[in-house]
Design goal:
Blueprint lengths: L4 H7 L3 H12 L1 H4 L2 H11 L3 H29 L2 H17 L7 H15 L4 H11 L4 H30 L1 H23 L8 H11 L12 H5 L2 H22 L1 H7 L4 H26 L4 H21 L4 H15 L2 H13 L4 H30 L3 H19 L12
C-alpha cells in the first residue's frame, strides 16, 4: 500500500526544506543582484543596461542548457548536481566582486554564473521531492518553491547592509559565504532523492514506484497541446508575466530609490515581496482547489497592475511603496502554481514534460529580457516610469489571457 501523506512527511521531514534552500540558492544571482546595480554602474560609469546584460546572458544560457541538465538528473539523480552546484554558484557569485572595470570581464564572470547555475535549477530540487512524495506532493512542492520567496525576502536587505558596511566588492563574496554557511549543511545532510543511489537499488525502486509510463497516462498528444489556443494563451501569459515581474523584482530597490527611499529603506520594503510571495503561494494553492483556476489566475495576475499604479501615483509615500511590494509579492508567489495547475488540468500528464518545457522557455525568455528592458527605459529617460506603464499593460494582457481560458477540463486531457 502506498504511504500516506503523514508517512511521507515522517520519513522525509527535511527534504523539502533542504530543496527549498537549494532553490533559493539557484536564484541568488537574480534576487540578490539588484542592490549592486547602482554602486557597480557608478564605479565604472556603466549604464544600467550594460550592468543588467550580465543577467540576460546567464538566463539565456540556462534556458538552452536546462533540457540537458534535466536529462542528466533523470539518469544520475539530483543529489550530486545540487550539492556540487551549490558550491560552484556561490563561488561564481563571489567572483563578481573581482570585476576589473572591463565590460568583457563583467560578462565573462556572468558566463561563469550561467554555467554554475545549471546544476541547481528548479528541476533538480523538485525532482528529488517528487521522488519521495506522492500523496503530499503538492504541499511538498509548495515548501520547496517557497525557496524563491525566501530569496526575495532575504537577499536584497542582506546585500544592501553588506554594501553599506563593506563596499560592493567585498559584499559579493561575503553574501555568498553567509548563504553557503546557512544552506550547505542542511542540503548536504537531507537532500537525497529516491534514485540517487543508482545501480541495482535504483532500478528496483523505479520498478516499484512507477506505476505507469508517461505514454500510458491520460492527456493530450504533444501535437494537440502545441497547436491548442489554450496552450498559446498560457505561453503568452507566462512570457508577459516573467518579463514584467522579474524586471520589477530585480530593479525594485532602484525604483524605490528613485522615488526617494534611502538604500536601507528601499531594501527593507523590497523584502516584503519575498514574505508576501509566501502568502501568495500558499493562498493560491488553497483557492485553486476551491474556485475556477482561470479566474483565480486572472485575479492574481491583476495585482501587479495595482502595484504599478501605486508606484506611479503614490508620490513616494511609504504606504504606496509597501503596498506595491506586497501586491507584487502576492503574484510572484502564485504564478508557477497557476500555470502548472492549468497545464495539467487542460492537457493531462501524458506529455506534461514536453509541454511544460515550452512554457519554461517562455518563462526564461521573459526573465532574460524583462530586466534588460527596464534598464533601457531608465538609461534613455532617467526614470522607470515608462517601464511601469508598460508593465501595467503587460500584466493586464496576461490576466486577460488566463481569464479567457475555458472553465472545464479539455476533452483530450482525459483520453
Amino acid at each position: 500500500m502506498p504511504p500516506s501523506a503523514r508517512e511521507e512527511w515522517h520519513r522525509n521531514p527535511l527534504l523539502p526544506v533542504a530543496a527549498g534552500l537549494g532553490y533559493a540558492t539557484s536564484v541568488i544571482h537574480i534576487y540578490g543582484i539588484g542592490p549592486f546595480y547602482g554602486p557597480v554602474a557608478a564605479q565604472f560609469g556603466w549604464s544600467r543596461t550594460e550592468v543588467t546584460f550580465g543577467l540576460t546572458i546567464a538566463t539565456l544560457v540556462q534556458a538552452v542548457g536546462g533540457v540537458f541538465i534535466g536529462l542528466a538528473v533523470d539518469r544520475f539523480g539530483p543529489r550530486r548536481f545540487g550539492v556540487v552546484g551549490l558550491v560552484l554558484l556561490g563561488l561564481a557569485f563571489a567572483a563578481l566582486g573581482s570585476t576589473d572595470g572591463s565590460l568583457l570581464n563583467w560578462y565573462l564572470l556572468w558566463g561563469l554564473i550561467a554555467l554554475a547555475a545549471l546544476p541547481v535549477q528548479a528541476s533538480v530540487w523538485t525532482s528529488a521531492v517528487a521522488s519521495r512524495f506522492t500523496a503530499s506532493r503538492g504541499m511538498a512542492f509548495a515548501v520547496t518553491l517557497c525557496g524563491a520567496s525566501i530569496a526575495a525576502g532575504v537577499f536584497p536587505p542582506l546585500a544592501t547592509g553588506l554594501i553599506g558596511a563593506l563596499g560592493w566588492r567585498a559584499a559579493f563574496p561575503v553574501q555568498a559565504a553567509i548563504w553557503l554557511v546557512v544552506a550547505f549543511p542542511v542540503i548536504f545532510m537531507f537532500f537525497h532523492g529516491r534514485y540517487d543511489a543508482g545501480g541495482r537499488g535504483q532500478r528496483r525502486q523505479k520498478s516499484e514506484d512507477v506505476g505507469a509510463k508517461p505514454a500510458d497516462l491520460p492527456g493530450a498528444t504533444l501535437r494537440e497541446g502545441l497547436t491548442s489556443s489554450v496552450y498559446h494563451r498560457l505561453f503568452i501569459a507566462s512570457l508577459l508575466f516573467t518579463f514584467t515581474i522579474i524586471a520589477l523584482v530585480v530593479h525594485f530597490t532602484a525604483i524605490l530609490g528613485d522615488s526617494g527611499a534611502s538604500p536601507m529603506a528601499a531594501a527593507g520594503i523590497a523584502s516584503f515581496i519575498g514574505w508576501f510571495s509566501l502568502a501568495g503561494r500558499l493562498g493560491t494553492g488553497m483557492l485553486l482547489d476551491r474556485l475556477p483556476a482561470s479566474l483565480v489566475g486572472a485575479a492574481v495576475f491583476l495585482l501587479p497592475v495595482l502595484g504599478c499604479l501605486l508606484l506611479l501615483m503614490g508620490d513616494g509615500s511609504f504606504a504606496a511603496m509597501a503596498g506595491a511590494s506586497a501586491l507584487i509579492g502576492l503574484t510572484l508567489g502564485a504564478e508557477i502554481d497557476v500555470v502548472v495547475y492549468l497545464l495539467t488540468r487542460h492537457f493531462g500528464l501524458r506529455n506534461f514534460g514536453g509541454l511544460y518545457g515550452g512554457l519554461l522557455a517562455a518563462l526564461s525568455i521573459g526573465t532574460a529580457i524583462g530586466p534588460l528592458a527596464a534598464a533601457q527605459f531608465f538609461d534613455r529617460t532617467g526614470s522607470y516610469s515608462g517601464f511601469l506603464w508598460l508593465a501595467l499593460g503587460f500584466m493586464a494582457a496576461s490576466s486577460i489571457a488566463i481569464g479567457s481560458l475555458p472553465r472545464g477540463r479539455a476533452v483530450y486531457a482525459t483520453h
